[in-house]
Amino acid sequence: MAFFDKIKQGLAKTKANIDSALNSVFAVFREVDEDLLEELLDALIMSDLGASLSQEIIDELRNRAKLDKLESEAQVKEALIDILKNKMTLDNSLKLTTTPSVIMVVGVNGVGKTTTIGKIGQKLTQEGKRVLFVAADTFRAAAADQLTIWAERCGAQIVRHAEGADPAAVIFDGITAAKARGVDVVICDTAGRLHNKQNLMRELEKMNRIIERELPDGDKETLLVVDATTGQNALSQAEQFGAVTQLSGVVVTKLDGTAKGGVVAAISAKMNIPIKFIGVGEKAEDLLEFEPEGFLKAFFE
Fold it and tell me: Considering only the top CATH level, what class is 101-300?
C-alpha cells in the first residue's frame, strides 16, 4: 500500500476531526475574508497544529489571498498545503553511510521507544544491513527483555547488561562489539525519565562522549520518539529534549489512534527538525518513512 493510502488510514481520526471543521468553513464558499480566516484558524487549532503556528499560517494565507486572488476552496487548500510545507523541515532521510553508524533513540517512557527501535531494526535488516541493538535503558527491567525479543524477531544482534548498569558502559560495549563484528548500524535505547533535567543532560552527554570518542568519524542520528495521542504535549517533549541534546529527527508514533495528527507538522515547523518516521499501526511495516507532501495532502484532502 502506498504512503498516501496508508497515511489516509492513519489520519482517519484526525481527518474526521478537521473535516468537520473545514466542511463547516467551506459549506458555502465565499471570498477569503476575515470571517473565513477566523473559522479556518479555529479548524487548524482543533487539529493540534497549535495556536501560534495556526496564526502564522492564517497570516500568510491572508497575504496570499490578496496577491494570488484565491477564489475557490481548492485554491485555499492548495495554499494551506504549500504554506505549511514551506514551514516544515523536509530532509527526512537517515544518514547512515559509515560502518558502523549509530542511532540514539530518546524519549519519555510509554511513547513506544523500544518498539520503534525494533521496527527500524527490522527495516534495516530487510535492506541487508547488519544491525546491533544496545539496551542502554538499564533503569526499566522490561526494556532489555523487550529489545531482545525484537532482536530475535528481526535478526539483529544485541548487547545488554544487568539492570541498573551504567548506560554509558553498555554503549561502549555495544560500539566495541559493533566494530569487531562488522556491524553496519548500532541502535541505542535510552532511559526515558524526565524527572530531573540535569541528570538527563549528564546521562546523554556521557553517552554522546563515548560515541564521539569511539566513532569520531561515524554518522550519528539522534531520534526523539513522541506519542501523537498526547497532542501538544509531544511538542513540549520535543522542546525539552531539544534543549539537552542535538536532535536530528523525530518519530511520531500512534498516529492512527488520535485526532491530534496536526502535531506532526507542528513539531517539524516549530522545532525546525525533520520528521523521519510516523507510526500508523502495530506492525513493523506500519512505521512509515515520512513524506511531508503526501502527509499534507492527506491531511487537507
Answer: alpha beta
Q: Which three cell numbers stand for residue 269?
A: 515547523
Residues of the chain with CATH 3.40.50.300: 101-300
Is the full-model pTM beyond 0.85? yes
Residue whose C-alpha cell reads 473545514 in the numeric block:
22
In this predicted model, what pLDDT tens digit does every residue of 227-263 receive, in sequence order?
A: 988 888 999 999 988 888 899 999 999 988 877 788 8
What is the spatial distance between Cα 91 and Cα 249, in angstroms, rounded to a whole number? 9
Asked if the peptide bond before residue 100 counts as cis, ω within 30 degrees of 0, the response is yes
Question: DSSP letter string over 204-224?
Answer: HHHHHHHHHHH-TT--EEEEE
pLDDT tens digits for range 97-126: 999 999 999 998 889 899 999 999 999 999
Q: How many CB atoms lie within 10 A of CB 28?
A: 5
3-state percent helix, strand, coil for the chain, nearest multiple of 5: 55, 15, 30
Per-residue exposure over 48-72, b if at least 16 CB sit within 10 Å of its own CB, e if not:
bbbeebbebbbebbeebbeeeebee
CA gap 282, 277 in Å, rounded: 14
Specify which residues 106 forms β-bridges with. 224
Residue type, 56: E
Q: How far apart are CA 252 and CA 290, in angstroms?
A: 10
Nearest to 22 by CA among 66, 61, 73: 73
Q: What does DSSP say about strands 131-135 and 275-279: parallel, antiparallel, or unpaired?
A: unpaired
For residue 45, the one-letter residue type is I
CATH architecture of 3-87: Up-down Bundle (1.20)
CA distance 266 to 10: 17
